[in-house]
Write a structure and sequence with these properties.
about 475 residues, mainly alpha, two-stranded parallel sheet
Length: about 475
Amino acid sequence: MCGLTEFKTYYYPEIIVGEAARAKASAFKHPDPQWRERLDEIQQAHASRSASRAERPLNAFRVARNRASGKNSARIPEVHTSNATENSVTLEEIENVEGFVKNLERIELPNQLIAVLGDPLLQKLLLLKPHAEAHQRASNWLASYGQDLLSGDSSEDINGSLELLETYVSSTRPLEAKVLDNTINSQLELLGFYTTLLQRWTISLASLEQKSAQAPSILADLVTHVNDLCLTLVQTAPTASTHSRILDFYEQTAVLASDPKLLVHTRISIPASPLVYILHFGLSPANLSRLCAILSKYKEGFQKAMTTSRSEYTPTYINEFNGFLMDICNCLWRSRAFNSNDVNAHGCLVPKSITEDLTSYVTSLNMGGSLTTLFSISYSPILGLFAISYFRELENEELERSAGGLRTRHAGPVTRHSLVALANNGGLRVGWDDYRLGVLTYLEQKSMTGVGQLMYNTMTNVMRRRSSMMMTDSA
């Protein structure tokens, strides 16, 4: 009271007080000095613990404080909970593992769940007590943050951000470790995830007005990683369905490689060489057509890219891709399968010793063809039926037009020499080049345009011949 009286006398002199104001009693003397000393000790101990938290191991059962440093530290918030109730417990109140386990079901989620990236205690909580809404909130933040990094809108150093994400992933459970369970289905699910991810990135890049500095390395790392996954899949599940799922991914990479606007943001990343040849020798005509269409788009992309950034692609890298084109054309068009003597030809990566053994075996069969022709349009186990079906249609049309009909029909498969012999024996008269171009057109009519696209874009003489035929037909 004496202290209060002195206070009023100083600030409000018009208030008259008695002599009590001049008493010698100390102002605001604490009624319980021992309690005050104990409170000071508790506060000092708490301050000491808070100051030392930055030095504690990351797996301690307490929220992380004062761990962030550098220019990227403000991006990831710390754990703060403001919506607690009387019956709930906040993460900030947890002091040890016993308290965490005891109050697990009562712990209230913090305000900003993205703090999980830098707080081990919050990571444990979300692992032991999954929360769909919390997961979605953190995922939305990461998606937005990733787009900022990819587009270059963020001023932050991507290395620091990636280190933070890497630490988070390694401290919880990696994505692939969570998805993979030693089954083919889990591998396919992971591949589907990467395909969807690349689609999303492609859309984001297409909307950018300025070049992204981070996109080339990010996309190249993704394609390199998926190359390994696809090589695993073609060995563990060598089916047409698996090949189709793999081609889904590379159709997205082909979009990136062939679109001039997208090329600004990325570097062309080609599939693994063994993978291309495994897909080429698959058993699905539709998959072969899709593979050829993908490689055709890649070729268009390289042609555009080399006009502006030739130094970005080494001769070895370009030759590796050109090898795909040369080897497939040698198989389907030139009847020179597994040839490695041509410029850029890699012989489909088949060792020469194996090619020699296969050549000897095919010769011993006395079937009238050589190893080099067995993968051509006429002989191919994938396209052979389409080729002979096309020729049968030509013969049927000729029978309808001609009163005399045909004295003989082709037994198949069609070759350059068999066409000459057929014409001399009164059969259908058609040139070798016209026949092959007709097969490509026939495939296009069956919604398999990829083979023709690759042949036209790779061999100029085929394109000229096709243009000449189209002009003749139109006339």
